Model the fold of this input.
Amino acid sequence: MTILSKESADEFKQQNYSARMAASRRPVSPHVTIYSFPACALSSIATRVTGCALSFGAAGLGIVEIFGGNGAALDLMSNIGSGAMGGGLVVAGAKFSVAFPFVYHYLGGLRHMIWDNSPEMLTNVDVEKASYILLGTSVLLSGVAVVV
Done:
């Protein structure tokens, strides 16, 4: 909108965004809640989330060690792993919640290293395939880590 006078500038400031968009009759961009993200975007977000989860997990173990004394984190992990703090489902969930972020983030980093050295692999089809392969391989390897 071109502002021609001080009055029109004041009127423009008084209108909110929704009123201006309704008056212009232009379509509004879709909001993130209704937008369907491509697989590669979800994969990228998941890599960042797993990196944060690993950081918080390491910080949590550090806090347990600081406040619990020498060997407290090892005792906690041994108790969870042996099933002393719950049934087999708790143990499997604990193992998977540690294994999946580690495996996914590690394999995601390897994928980016490969892409950095071979940019010809960065086609839309190959990137989408790599995202699905990354998720499937991570779930498979994490599942193996749970039963081992």
